[in-house]
């Protein structure tokens, strides 16, 4: 998965095995909603 969420760049290499990908993605989604003011 690539792309930018708010001001945060997502680098797939940070989660090579994907074991925490779901939790990290959820966290980034929460951050994104806060930045957008939807939190």
Tell me what the structure shows:
This protein has one domain (3-36). The radius of gyration is 10 Å and the shape is rod-shaped. It has 39 residues and is α+β, with helices and mostly antiparallel strands. It has one helix at residues 21-36, and strands at 3-5, 8-10. The protein has a two-stranded antiparallel ribbon. The model has no long low-confidence stretch (mean pLDDT 68). It is built from 1 helix and 2 strands. A hairpin with a 2-residue loop joins strand 1 (3-5) and strand 2.
First-residue to last-residue Cα separation:
24 Å
Structural class: alpha+beta
Q: Which radius of gyration do the C-alpha atoms yield? A: 10 Å
Q: How many H/I helices?
A: 1
The main sheet comes to: 2 strands, antiparallel
Write out the strand line-up for the largest beta sheet, numbering strands in chain order: 1-2
Number of domains: 1
- The multimeric state of the shown protein is single chain
Helix amount, in percent? 40-55%
Order of helices and strands: EEH
Mean pLDDT: 68
The total strand number stands at 2
Describe the global form: rod-shaped
How big a fraction of the residues is strand? 15-25%
Low-pLDDT segments, ≥5 res = none
Question: SSE layout and pairings?
Answer:
Blueprint: E1 3-5, E2 8-10, H1 21-36
Brief rundown of the structure:
This protein has one helix at residues 21-36; strands at residues 3-5, 8-10.
């Amino acid at each position: 998965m690539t792309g930018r969420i708010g001001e945060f760049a997502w680098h797939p290499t940070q989660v090579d095995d994907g074991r925490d990908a779901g939790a990290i993605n959820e966290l980034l989604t929460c951050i994104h909603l806060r930045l957008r003011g939807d939190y």
